[in-house]
Design goal:
The protein has about 90 residues and is of the alpha+beta class. The chain has one domain. Helices cover about 35% and strands about 30% of the residues. The chain is built from two helices and five strands, in the order βββαββα.
Length: about 90
Amino acid sequence: MPRYFMHIRQGGQLIEDTEGVELPDLGAARAWALHGIRDLVGEAIRYGRDDWLDDALVITDATGRELMRVPFIEALPPRLYQALHC
C-alpha cells in the first residue's frame, strides 16, 4: 500500500509530515486530508482565527513528489464554501 505525506502549507511556510500514512489510493488520501483539515479548521474557529483561509494541505508520495493540493476552504460544508466565494 502506498504511503502518502500530508504537508501543511501556511503562507510561505511548509510544515512537513515526516511519518505519512499508508492508504490504498490518492482518493483515500484526499478523504483523509479533508478529515484532517476539518479538525484543524474547527480548532481555528474555536479560537476565533481566520488565518487558515489561504492554507492548503499538500499530498506527496514517498519521493516528495506533489500529487495533490487541497485548499483548507474546500473542507467547508457547501453552503459555507459558497458564501465565502460570493
